[in-house]
Amino acid sequence: MCLIGLLGDVSVTSRRRTTIQNRIKCCLFDHSRRKQQDSRCFHHSSQQVSFKSDPMFSSSFLRLILLLCLVSSSFSSTTSSSNSTAADQTLRPQEELQKLTLIRQELDKINKPAVKTIQSSDGDKIDCVSTHQQPAFDHPLLQGQKPLDPPEIPKGYSEDDGSYENSQLWSLSGESCPEGTIPIRRTTEQDMLRASSVQRFGRKIRRVKRDSTNNGHEHAVGYVTGRQYYGAKASINVWSPRVTSQYEFSLSQIWVIAGSFTHDLNTIEAGWQISPELYGDTYPRFFTYWTSDAYRTTGCYNLLCSGFVQTNRRIAIGAAISPRSSYKGGQFDISLLIWKDPKHGHWWLQFGSGALVGYWPAFLFTHLKQHGSMVQFGGEIVNNRPGGSHTTTQMGSGHFAGEGFGKASYFRNLQIVDWDNTLIPASNLKILADHPNCYDIRGGTNRVWGNYFYYGGPGKNPRCP
After folding, report:
1. Among 96, 218, 380, 403, the one annotated catalytic
2. Are residues 31 and 83 in contact, defined by beta-carbon separation less than 8 angstroms?
3. Region (Disordered) spans which residues (predicted)?
4. Which one of the listed residues 95, 269, 277, 403 is annotated catalytic?
5. For labelling, which of 62, 82, 203, 335 has a CA lying 20 to 30 Å from the CA of 417?
């Protein structure tokens, strides 16, 4: 719990601001004595200070201060209750106000006016936004344009691959977005406050190598390289792996890659992920990503920046997937297809059987304007090494590949799109696990599943300290 002793008028002169900032304290209850309060919470002053009369301003600012106090209280409770220094958390109102202002500006860019809002059972709000008002059309090269018509589907495509048609939680209520709109998961202040910075919200940590030596990212993937690639397709098993830290994630996805693993890396990515930092929960969620400069300044998840153009009114990127697979129980997967439109050169995404989600315009990229030079399929986690040991964040089902169907996670029917816009098997597939004692991978081929692999693992275990 937290008491705010004195809140300053943000419109006073800078000299008074300094005085007021020095008086503001977030005081924590001593949990062992519950009601005993620190007397430093209370200040006696002849100065009369007040918030601006705007109720939205004061309520948002108060909400931000209270949220920060609760975070401070939660953190302090994990340390020694006798440590009075840790219990006094000084707030800087002007800095927090600047952050709140920046957050509001970003939210105004991301959250577009809604024609209709749908409440999801997982707590999400899904806004039905006019197609031409979606974030993509903030891009200077897209302003005033309309989404393109569907492209030619790759030759050899078959909907009858046994893929289970998953639903999204928000749509189970029976509500849907009207014609001429698309569903967008609403971004909140709390979402942005969880991010390491407002500027990096919705972006991956920069990394330029596909191994675990860079920023704690670890992979178990199958990949093809050495040719020109115009797309990829696979069915991906959906699970709810345990993610043990807010700043770690677990995902399974397809990568289409061009350029080198340095500053000029281009990627298009789609799959499912669990990311407590980005979404505030541990539901597996359908996601997309792109970058044209190795995650430095371009690209983002989902629709959190201008780029990806959504055309589908029934699928919300970033929304939770249901149902999920269970150990020794039902197995459910999603089918994803990414391919380059031969006519206009844009990269399209399909989710499930025949449901076009939208496209990444070709002008977003440098190397991917032409084609990909590598395709990857598989899992990725972030390992922050809590307490100096390997994380227990799981990949896939949380079980090793050797356990097989119903226990390990899988990718099946791995295909690539060739220069003639034809789907062909992903032959010469290589497999790689950065840390096979933590997460591993085993490949195979059969008549029903074509090229496939099992992958994943529990993270920390006796062989992965």
Report:
1. 380
2. no
3. 137-164
4. 269
5. 203
Between the alpha carbon of residue 418 and those of residues 292, 325, 373, 377, the distances in Å are 22, 32, 11, 17
Active site residue 106: no
| Strand ranges, E, within 320-461 | 321-322, 333-340, 347-351, 355-360, 372-382, 409-417, 423-425, 430-433, 440-446, 450-456
Calpha distance 140→133 (Å, rounded): 13
322 and 273 in a common domain = yes
Of 74, 108, 142, at which residue does a domain stop? 108
7-to-89, 193, 463 alpha-carbon distances in Å? 15, 21, 53
- Name the residue with higher pLDDT: 202 or 319: 319
User: In the annotation, is 269 catalytic?
Assistant: yes
Q: Which domain holds residue 437?
A: 118-456
Residues 26 and 163 in one domain: no
Closest CA to 29 of 77, 66, 63: 77
- Domain termination site, one of 108, 131, 160: 108
Shared-domain flag, residues 193 and 146: yes
pLDDT in tens, 30-83: 333 333 333 333 333 333 333 333 444 445 444 544 444 444 444 344 333 334
- List of E strands, 96-180: 114-119, 125-130, 167-168
Question: Are residues 227 and 102 part of one domain?
Answer: no
Same domain? For 76 and 170 the reply is no
Q: What is the DSSP letter of 137?
A: G
Q: Which ranges constitute the DSSP H helices of 219-362? A: 276-279
